[in-house]
Amino acid sequence: MEENQVSFVEQLKRQVMDFFNNPDALIGMAKALVLALLIFWVGRKVARWMSSLTAKGLTKTGNDPILVNFLRNLVYYVILVAVVIMALGQLGVQTTSLIAVMGAAGLAIGLALKDSLSNFASGVMLVLFRPFRLGDVVEVAGKTGKVKEIRIFSTIISTPDNKEMIVPNGQITSDVITNFSSQATRRVDLVIGVSYDDDIKTAKNIIHETVSSHDLVLQDPAPTIMLLELADSSINFAVRPWCNSGDYWTVYGDLLEQLKVNLEAGGCSFPYPQRDVHLHQVKPD
To answer: 3-state secondary structure string, the chain?
Structure first.
């Protein structure tokens, strides 16, 4: 065994010595190395130039900064990988087998990181199609809040009680997205109930005057006030005024308070849920 190892080492030494004693081989190797380094240097310059050109073009057309950075990095690394393969081919490396190995490794990594890749693809879709923007109030994946940041893998949402939620982008695109800030105006939906003993016309006039006199309620479109339901314990009115989206909760809270005060001042009442219980006495046989 030791003799075989010694003979192998000696054979390797002879091959190295033969290579260095052969000027043509050294010159060929030096030329290939210089050419490979030149290809890599020029290719990296081209990759940077192409990525910068892509970023400038996307920025001029008003694209989102997240999309600009993502595509700039994508262009750079795709070109750089092609340049590295060309440089290795110049050195005599079998690039065909290298590409096959890289493809198999990419497939294995993709299967292992399928959830992350799903979030990544969803992040690209959010940036491209823009169902919401920074600062919009949205409901996504069952969570409501203001969009603070859109990342490639997740979206940061700030809740009204100042909590920060990190929602995976895959959950956002797979569910219904409700954007409360996409439109300039919103409708406030209220249900106001009065007693059956109250006069319907009087209650409706009080509601109409209260809604119309609010400064933040829009007159176009006009508020809708109609009898909605003859419920078990009350007569319910549907009160539907319009306001600017930013004034929604202010109008909602103000109208609830003012309607209660004005209806009670006008002689109307808010009944409690009631149930009549009838007792029957059973005589003994």
So the answer is: CHHHHHHHHHHHHHHHHHHHCCHHHHHHHHHHHHHHHHHHHHHHHHHHHHHHHHHHHHHHCCCCHHHHHHHHHHHHHHHHHHHHHHHHHHCCCCHHHHHHHHHHHHHHHHHHCHHHHHHHHHHHHHHHHCCCCCCCEEEECCEEEEEEEECCCEEEEECCCCCEEEEEHHHHHCCCCEECCCCCEEECCEEEEECCCCCHHHHHHHHHHHHHCCCCEECCCCCEEEEEEECCCCEEEEEECEEEHHHHHHHHHHHHHHHHHHHHHCCCCCCCCCCCCCCCCCCCC
